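Student: Send me a single protein entry containing the residue sequence and its fold in token form, directly below this note:

Tutor:
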Amino acid sequence: MSDDPIAESVEVHVEQQVAELAAIRTFITSVLRTEQVTRHVRQLTVGGGDVRTFAPVSADQFLYVLAPPPGRHELTIDAGFSWEQYDAMAPDDRPIGAYYTVRRWRPDVAELDLLFVLHGDEDTGTAGPAAQWAARARPGDPVALWGPRSAFEPPNGTEWYLLVADDTGLPAVAAIIESLPPGTPIRVIAEVDAEEDRQPLPVADGVDVQWCYRRGRPAGTTTMLVDAVRAMPWPAGVAYAWGGAESRCITAVRKYVRTERGLSRDAVSMTGYWRHDDHADDDEH
């Protein structure tokens, strides 16, 4: 054992993280159906194979979607996949992938719905290989899912919720709303390009949704989310703030609720779901 208690604590934390990552499973499955939800959002329903043994972990649970390498039609990994294996693979054999939130899990039929944001060329920095794969995916296409993981962990005693998201975080917002008891006070700040880009959100007592519209400005380049959070009336009671959006945008919201609203670390979960090209050198955390 180390004589330095700080070093020892860090070592234990790292070991725990390594063990947690090693325990995460890889599910081998395939695309069952596709649906265009909005002009820039496509839903892929996957099922069959290992998904029959999927076990949900939280309302905002997310999976790393692993698809065949560019120009290939078969997976180059199996259920024994690990990131050590990925690092050892030839670059041309590595699967393409990215994190996506589970919008719905239907255990009775063992199906998962995943929503993919398919930005056009005008939204630079957002159309990665996984989104390109999702735009072309068809029923029968193989896919692997590594996960699930989650970030939504409200402390006991939370009295109301602030949910902040751009297009990429809205599937998690919808799932979180559905997971909370009817009548729970929830404030949603949602950013999309225009009215036709609104993703369907559950309508329930206590849920107040404010839509912010970019009107052609590229996603990830505005201050709309933090501006809307600053301007909203702050309810009394114990708050929990969750967010999923472009890295710099959601970092600004995190800083505001932590420093100016005084929320504790365990009352805030703000995740950079993606990073705009102009922000590539920023520290996401």
Q: What stands out?
A: Residues 5-22 form the longest helix (18 residues).
